[in-house]
Amino acid sequence: MSSGKDGRPFARVMEKHEADREIHAAGGLHYDVLEAIERHLDPDARLTAETGCGRSTIFFSNLSEHHVYFCLDDRSKGAGSSVKYYEESDLFRAEKTTWVPGPTQRTLKDYQHTGQYDCVLIDGPHGYPFPDMEYYFFYPHIKPEGLLIIDDVHIASIGRMADILQEDVMWKLEEVAKTTAIFRRTDATTFWNEGDGWWQQGYNQRRAYKSKPFYVDDGMPFQSFYDRYFSHRKKTTKKRKRPFRSLRKIFRR
Ligand SMILES: C[S@@+](CC[C@H](N)C(=O)[O-])C[C@H]1O[C@@H](n2cnc3c(N)ncnc32)[C@H](O)[C@@H]1O
Do residues 22 and 16 lie in contact, with contact meaning Cβ atoms separated by under 8 Å? Predict the structure, then answer.
């Protein structure tokens, strides 16, 4: 692992070194976030991966024996390109990395992973359901004690994924640094990725009153899908009670 001569975190060495550089157009991880990742990452990390690329790619190329990144080739963007951003950095260690170019929607499903990951960062396409899709292809390949990092949990659909994960026995939430959630893989059995099992998942075993309304930004209550189903069940139950009541009337006569 690389770090400053005075034992400073690599994230801070990088911050100083790259101080004059403007970040690429898609926006990069804040140095505070990189420092938080560094605190949780195994100092002997052998294999890491990320979706998207940029500042984090420079970071992982220094902190991991080998780093694989799945990212669009956006060099035609010129100065705003995230590929150019790491390529043009003196700190980037290309020899420690493998680039899988192209949309993750295509590249991940056929990729043959070379080992179990010490850390996976999800920070490529942010629209729903792409981060969820990336999680699906990565989660069986993250080793116990390994990290799963989800960036931009302030985006509602990504936050929902993080909500699901924080109730999943496979993950322990270590820290939320700015808008980045850092989870650690527990030693729980890997959820079977070719079957079902929704009833085993913590998120689906709610502890709160299930029919509670939730509110959207315009202040209006929003009907949950559970509620739609539940009110349908109530109607069915009522229908069943009616003949029973009339039977009681018959007996009273
Ligand atoms: C927010 S940036 C990543 C920032 C990076 N983690 C950093 O610290 O600089 C998102 C990245 O995802 C890439 N991207 C967007 N859509 C993608 C897709 N469908 N497949 C792969 N990469 C994608 C963008 O080109 C960009 O590099």
Answer: no
